[in-house]
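Something for you to look into today, if you have time. Just paste the record in under my message, thanks.
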Amino acid sequence: MDNKMMVDHEAFLKGIKPALYRAYNQGLAELFPVLKEYPHLKDHTGRFLFFQSKEKKQKYVDNLRQIDINSPEYHKMLGLLLVYPPKAVDFYVRKCTDRSLSEVSIGLGYSGVRCVCDVRELIENTIWLWDTYQLDEELRLMVEGEFIYVSYRNMEELKKVQASILQRIAVSV
């Protein structure tokens, strides 16, 4: 494969992702004429959140009224809205308050999803992504500033990569 990974806005515009969360920058400015046609809002950080439907936006707004901005519940709600693997969302929420988890944190990218996960939960998170999105594209991992690619549904390769990362960062499962 050519290591071409679908990015978040492509997945959103194709209807694969129900929401898109982006800071306003040159890339978003170029897409804004198309994206502004979708229901959207600007959050407390100045980032834009685009939705596939008015109903999804309203549900988000209703849920937002019940939680504190920047609380663990907020980050969990946002991660689940963006359809990140639930275990990766839980890890991110824990990592916000426990910086020692940075030692086992790796980047995970697939089908427009870019998130972090605990390397010890890599297999489970990857299977969740493959089962949820089912796109024949490589998984991209970011480990200590380096990209590692894993072929779609190649469990043997994924297990070897996980073992290699665990050995590299000296963490056991």
In short: Helices lie at 8-13, 26-35, 54-64, 72-81, 86-97, 122-133, 155-169.
